[in-house]
Amino acid sequence: MKNEVLKLLQDPYTQDKLEFENGMLINPNNGRQYCCANEYYSFVADEEISGNNKKYSSLYDKISWIYNIANKIYFFFKFGNEYKARSEYLNELEIKNGDKVLEVSIGTGDNLPYLNQNSYFYGIDISKGMLNMAVKHLRKWKIPAYLFRCQAERLPFEDNTFDVVFHIGGINYFNDKQQAIHEMIRVAKPGTKLMIVDETEKCISEIYQKNPFSKKYYQDTSEAIVPLELVPSTMEDIAVNTVNDGLFYCITFRKPA
Predict the structure, then answer these.
(1) pLDDT 10s digits, 123-158
(2) Tens digit of each residue's pLDDT (9 = 90 or more) over 13-54
(3) What is the Cα–Cα distance from 121 to 179, expressed in whole angstroms?
(4) DSSP-derived secondary structure for 158-186
(5) Residue 138 is inside which H or E element, if any?
(6) Host H or E run for residue 52
């Protein structure tokens, strides 16, 4: 564990600083240990995951092996290519050379090849399957990144850590969307532009509910509502629009400097 990474971390449950010993992250105040498996540290045990977080982490564990190729095929036939589709929202990000970039729900790492490679990538996800695939992909693509398993409602990072914070796909079905947004804001540096992208009702009804692998998980479209009211009114430059032919909403806002 590099010292510059260790300095950014904290216990997501107690906010205590962590120590690194014998390959583990340790909370010196209560002795809790966080272990590394397959090149990422886990800050949550399976038995601690409940509700929607448990339901959808299970779904993504099951589909992680095909998620990347399925997206590539879909983007090709729907939008012409993957770059064109992802650029509609990734171009909203303000990434400068040397920035520390956090992706909440990094999945299989598919967004990172389209970002500024002269920055430092960090990613969290709740799905072990997705993180395992991210490790493979990023190694293949030669993109260094620090990965962690945790719930978006409890990020294991210090306040005011990241120059860029974004989330793509998943927040509609988080246990606590409000808390996840607060956490993203907390770990962002003052002045940071944040971005949240997720499926619209159109995406749920026209794609997920017609897919035999996902339809049982997406019977209800009521959760696919733009959570604009959950963005604190103290944020600046709040904006929302739809991308990818109305299949996704994109919320951007800035943490006050």
Answers:
(1) 999 999 999 999 999 999 999 999 999 999 999 999
(2) 999 999 999 999 999 999 999 999 999 999 999 999 999 999
(3) 23
(4) -TT-BSEEEEES-GGG-S-HHHHHHHHHH
(5) helix 128-141
(6) helix 51-79
Pairing relationship of beta strands 100-104 and 40-42 according to DSSP bridges:
unpaired
Domains of the chain listed by start with CATH number: 1-34 (no CATH), 49-254 (3.40.50.150)
- Lookup: tokens for 127: 């799905």
Q: Is the dihedral of CA 5, 7, 9, 11 positive or negative?
A: positive
Which distant-in-sequence residues (6+ apart) come within 8 Å of 244 by Cβ?
78, 79, 85, 88, 89
Say which amino acid occupies 237.
D
Closest CA to 33 of 122, 22, 197: 22
CA triple 101-173-255, angle to 5 deg: 35
| 130 Rama class: left (phi>0) / alpha (psi -120 to 50) / beta | alpha
